[in-house]
Amino acid sequence: MGGEKLWVPLQVRYVDCDMMGHVNNAVFLSYFELGRVAYGRRYLGDFLDWKRNGFLVARHEVDYTMPLLLTAPEPGVEVWCSRVGRSSFDFSYVLREAAGSPVYARGRTVAVYMNLTHGASEALPPDLRQHLERLIPKD
Fold first, then answer.
1. Cα gap 53→21, rounded to integer Å
2. Could you point out which of 17, 45, 62, 66 has its C-alpha 20 to 30 Å from the C-alpha of 115?
3. Which of 44, 57, 52, 40 is nearest to 119 (CA)?
4. What is the three-state SS of the chain?
5. How far apart are the first and last CA of the chain?
6. The overall pTM is greater than 0.70
7. CATH class of this structure's domain 5-134
8. In 3D, which of 134, 63, 53, 44 has the Cα closest to residue 104?
């Protein structure tokens, strides 16, 4: 395993859109969340208990590059781990068509590792840190 990116297909729903058929800007965070959850299940499930430890979102960034329409044929979000810190790590995203273009938005989420029993952040355990570092794409 190394440099893992995950493609998650999306379905644009009517409720996601405004009167012009554009996906509302706030919905992009929900699409990123769908990608983040799928990525976590695939690559982080062995390291998280969710009764004792997990991660919480500390920050989101979104750059909107063009409108995503209700009629988009095959949108999806590509997600990967892009940075590992002492007690946090980043998910990065590209929301685009399956074929590779156009890009509708790029984003980043800072996730903080939490001891859920104590309700406080703590340093990433060494095994999780090494795993996350291996997941960062080398390109």
1. 40
2. 62
3. 52
4. CCCCEEEEECCCCHHHECCCCEECCCHHHHHHHHHHHHHHHHHCHHHCCCCCEEEEEEEEEEEECCCCECCCCCEEEEEEEEEECCCEEEEEEEEEECCCCCEEEEEEEEEEEEECCCCEECCCCHHHHHHHHHHCCCC
5. 15
6. yes
7. alpha beta
8. 63
Amino acid at 43: Y
- Which residue ranges in the chain fall short of pLDDT 70? 1-2
Q: Which residue, chain included where needed, has tokens 């989101």?
A: 60
The distance from CA 68 to its chain's CA centroid, rounded to whole angstroms, is 18
